[in-house]
Structure formats: C-alpha cells, structure tokens
C-alpha cells in the first residue's frame, strides 16, 4: 500500500501548530483528547491532538477534499528542513504504508518542526481510526510511536464538522 504523492501540494503550509493559537481556525468541539477545528481558509475541518511532551498530530482533508493529510510536529531537535522530501514507512495494525513525508519548518508555530504525508487510501484512514498506535519509520532518523487513542471518535467528529461546513 502506498501513500499518494502530490508534488508541490502545500497542504499544511498555513497550518499553525497548535490550531487554537491561529484565528483562521474556529474550535468546533473536543473528544477523547482531540480537538476539532474549522479551517476557514480551506473551508474544511481538521483534528488535532497534543501529547504531554507538546508533540502535535493533525489530520484533515485538503481544500479539494480528495486527499487526507497526517502531520506530526515536535519541539524536539530534528534535522527536518522545509519542503525536504524523504521516504517514510508507517505501520498501523498489520498494514504497512510507504510513501513520502514533506518537511515543514518556519511556516508553523515558532519552535516546531515536522512533516506531513498525503494519502487517498481509505484503508489508511480506517486504520488510523481503529488502531491505538502507529509506528513511523522515517528514512533518516529513528522510528517513533504515535498514540492514536481517541482517533475514531475524533475522525467521526471531524466528518460531522465537514458536513456542517459544506452545508453552510
């Protein structure tokens, strides 16, 4: 299974980590440790979780709503550079996804670095919703585990939010 590659798609270029700090985002609701925001620029919604170490996970849809994104951001020291691309493998449950991560630095909240992947694979989103952790294997650094607790209800609230945004 592969993560869809979209060269030049600056999906998260305007996303601020954390969304609550940016006025283009409106808080829609919270569930099981996740916040759901309306992104007024994209006329879409995203979900966000911040762990005890202030690492941020964001998920949502592109403006066209045909591709999902998953972004992970940290205050820890990284070698990630803006717009750099590197291979990544993500294990969720028994499914291994391979693709490319695009680095972000500077166009997100000061002090954060990270990257995002894009996908049009519905199984990837299903796995994110139903599994409790994912293991990320970046090309140039050590693997790490992300807690997915609460994603099922957060994704459902995100879908509800998107339906509301589309109805307006």
Q: Could you walk me through the main structural features you see in this protein, from its secondary elements to its overall organization?
A:
Keywords: Signal. By secondary structure, the chain is α+β, with helices and mostly antiparallel strands. It has helices spanning 122-130, 151-167, and strands at 25-31, 34-39, 44-50, 56-61, 68-74, 85-92, 95-105, 113-119, 133-138, 144-147. It has one domain (19-167). It has 2 helices and 10 strands. The chain has a 10-stranded antiparallel sheet. It is globular, with a radius of gyration of 15 Å.
Which structural category do the helix and sheet elements fall into? alpha+beta
Helix content: 10-25%
Q: Spans with pLDDT under 50 lasting ≥5 residues?
A: 4-17
Shape: globular
Whole-number total of structural domains? 1
Oligomer type: single chain
Q: What do the pLDDT scores average to?
A: 83
User: Biggest sheet: strands side by side, in what order?
Assistant: 1-2-3-4-5-8-7-6-9-10
Radius of gyration (Å): 15 Å
Give me the number of helical elements: 2
Termini distance?
A: 36 Å
Please indicate the percent range of residues in DSSP E strands (runs of 2 or more): 35-45%
Number of strands: 10
Q: Specify the biggest β-sheet.
A: 10 strands, antiparallel
Q: Spell the H/E element sequence.
A: EEEEEEEEHEEH
Keywords: Signal
């Amino acid at each position: 299974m592969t993560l869809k590659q979209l060269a030049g798609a600056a999906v998260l270029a305007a996303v601020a980590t954390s969304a609550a700090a940016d006025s283009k985002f409106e808080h829609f609701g919270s569930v099981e440790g996740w916040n759901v925001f309306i992104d007024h620029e994209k006329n879409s919604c995203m979900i966000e979780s911040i762990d005890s170490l202030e690492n941020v996970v964001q998920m949502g849809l592109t403006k066209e709503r045909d591709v999902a994104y998953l972004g992970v951001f940290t205050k820890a020291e990284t070698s990630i550079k803006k717009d750099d691309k590197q291979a990544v493998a993500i294990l969720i449950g028994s499914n291994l996804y391979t693709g490319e991560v695009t680095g972000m630095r500077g166009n997100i909240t000061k002090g954060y670095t990270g990257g995002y992947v894009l996908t049009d694979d519905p199984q990837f989103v299903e796995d994110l919703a139903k599994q409790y952790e994912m293991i990320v294997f970046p090309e140039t650094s050590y693997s790490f585990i992300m807690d997915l607790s609460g994603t099922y209800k957060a994704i459902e609230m995100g879908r509800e939010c998107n339906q509301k945004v589309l109805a307006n």
